[in-house]
Amino acid sequence: MSTPAQRPAGANAGAKKRPYRKPAQDPARRLAFDALRAVDERDAYANLVLPALLRKAEQDVNFTRRDAAFATELVYGTLRMRGSYDAIIAACVDRPLNKIDGPVLDVISLGAHQLLATRIPTHAAVSATVDLARTVLTEGPAKFVNAVLRKISQHDLDTWLEQVAPPYEEDAEEHLGVLFSHPRWVVSALWDAIGVWQPQAAGRTAMEALLAADNARPEVTLVARPGRSTVEELVAALDEDATEPGRWSPYAVRLAEGGDPADLRAVRENRAGVQDEGSQLVAAALAAAPLEGGADARWLDGCAGPGGKAALLAALAAERGAALLASEAQPHRARLVARALEGNPGPYAVITADGTRPAWRPASFDRVLVDVPCSGLGALRRRPEARWRRRPADVANFAPLQRGLLRSAIDATRPGGVVGYATCSPHLAETRVVVQDVLKGRDDVEWIDARACLPQVPDLGDGPDIQLWPHLHGTDAMYLALLRKLR
């Protein structure tokens, strides 16, 4: 599907008029609007801007947990379904969406989400959203918002999507893009990837399951860092009804909706943390990969920011008496890595360095991980706005850096040592193609079957590399290739 209309950054043009009545103040809806404007105006990420807005709002004693939960649902729900809502809004207006002022379009989108994806009564959704419009816009745009929302309220979501999506038989990718609110190019890339990894099931059903999983609210998953915390400790510290063990990682605990990781002492003390199970599996697989000859004493995380995998690797290394060097090119991310590793009992160091111009000698490490920068298409559940922000050219722009980091990682590994190339994307141009290109013409590196390092995880494909999927594994779509340096 085509990308949703770009929201103009400026406020509504023209002189503001005093509303004919004072609108009711709704802190949750106003907060959600402010978050959407930050995403549109400053290219902010919702998972970064929303917590700051919530912390500020919670200083008001009248702002409740229910308000916070509602505001969170409005922000993430609206961003996830923005493509579908834009198609519906376009059918209800007499002008192109890019001719509608950005703040106005955001208010309408918030109202559309309430009407089409929540149990809020129609009259309440319309009335409260129009009141929001009177607060943040002016009376003229508020009347326009009211008229559009009343048109939207005439049908439910399924009926609208039947009307605005092209038939599947005529354009399958556009059809699925409209139904599941993904840009057409992303649908195409995901379909190509599924065709490689799950060719026996790469049809409409699999694509619908994957796109639906991208739109589902992700679970909060905790990691009990080995030697510092245990799954049993985390479960015991919470109501048993509020937790479930991880599906695949021996270090994972899944938190029930509404659970707050900050309530856990182990999290506050940095002995445990929040980490997607897919990221845990990447670190666990690298640690489980067999070495040939030599010691197992020096580990490197060459792209360590913001520090989740580095913290788990440091804990696993400490159990073996190994040391971890965590390197991150960006100073502010290196500080996050240092914070994540605080208190680790084993030897470790955090440095700010460019992995493509290494600050270490060649063949210095037994195990090396490079979780390279990428498009982030594997984490659309967590960063729903990324699907509208990314372009196909971004994938190509990351390619030189990804290849450079992998080459440097191989050079940093001793003979018999292991390299892990990971990325949070299922796009073939960021995953298997990168590894194949780097290994082309080299006879000093071989693939390791990564599936053997995660025997408990099903549906990993034919190997030797692995691809995790949100609809199959309940994780982000992490990719991992394991390579052994031969000489």
Description:
The chain contains 20 helices and 12 strands. Strand 6, helix 16 and strand 7 form a beta-alpha-beta unit. About 1% of the residues have low confidence. With 487 residues, it is an alpha/beta fold. The protein has 3 domains: 131 residues, NusB-like (N-utilizing Substance Protein B Homolog, Chain A); 55 residues, Alpha-Beta Plaits (2-Layer Sandwich); 209 residues, Vaccinia Virus protein VP39 (Rossmann fold). Strands 5, 6, 7, 8, 9, 10, 11 and 12 form an 8-stranded mixed β-sheet that branches. It has a 4-stranded antiparallel β-sheet with strand order 2-3-1-4.
Q: What is the domain tally?
A: 3
The proportion of residues in beta strands is: 5-15%
Task: Characterize the main sheet.
Answer: 8 strands, mixed
* Broad shape: globular
Number of extended strands: 12
Helix content: 40-55%
Whole-Å distance between the termini?
A: 48 Å
* CATH class bucket of the largest domain: Alpha Beta
Our count of helices gives 20
The average pLDDT value, as a whole number, equals 93
Family: Belongs to the class I-like SAM-binding methyltransferase superfamily. RsmB/NOP family.
Pfam families: Methyltr_RsmB-F, NusB
Function: May act as RNA methyltransferase.
Protein name: 16S rRNA (Cytosine967-C5)-methyltransferase
List keywords for this structure.
487 residues, 20 helices, single chain, 3 domains, eight-stranded mixed beta sheet, transferase, globular, Alpha-Beta Plaits, alpha/beta, N-utilizing Substance Protein B Homolog, Chain A, Rossmann fold, methyltransferase
Topology:
Blueprint: H1 27-42, H2 46-57, H3 65-80, H4 82-90, H5 102-117, H6 122-136, H7 139-152, H8 157-164, H9 172-180, H10 184-197, H11 204-215, E1 220-224, H12 231-236, E2 243-245, E3 252-255, H13 265-268, E4 272-274, H14 277-288, E5 298-301, H15 308-319, E6 323-328, H16 331-341, E7 348-352, E8 365-371, H17 386-389, H18 392-412, E9 413-423, H19 432-439, E10 445-448, E11 466-467, H20 470-473, E12 479-485
Parallel strand pairs: 5-6, 5-8, 6-7, 8-9
Antiparallel strand pairs: 1-3, 1-4, 2-3, 9-12, 10-12, 11-12
